[in-house]
Design goal:
Helix 2 (about 20-45) runs antiparallel to helix 3. The radius of gyration is 16 Å and the shape is elongated. The chain is built from 3 helices and no strands. By secondary structure, it is an all-alpha fold. The chain has one domain (about 10-75). Keywords: Membrane, Transmembrane, Transmembrane helix.
């Protein structure tokens, strides 16, 4: 694991060692699972009032998946 000078999260993880690295990957996996759950719920749930509500829940899910990708990428670089 090398600390990229342009990425402060990478420097923090490199300084924190293996435990922080594993915690960061766990957080990324949790965010991805939560985002996927939101996206599936938004797409297939009949509990939401309108199509706009469904799209907003799907957007939140996709956003969480995106954040998890950034966190995971930062952990690996």
């Amino acid at each position: 694991m090398t600390a990229n000078a342009s990425n402060p999260l990478s420097r923090l993880i490199a300084a924190g060692g293996q435990k922080l690295f594993l915690v960061t990957l766990s957080v990324a996996a949790l965010l991805a699972a939560l985002g996927f759950s939101f996206a599936v719920f938004g797409a297939f749930s009949g509990l939401l009032a309108s199509t706009f509500d469904q799209l907003m829940v799907i957007a939140v899910g996709v956003g969480l998946i995106g954040v998890s990708g950034v966190v995971g990428y930062s952990a690996l670089n």
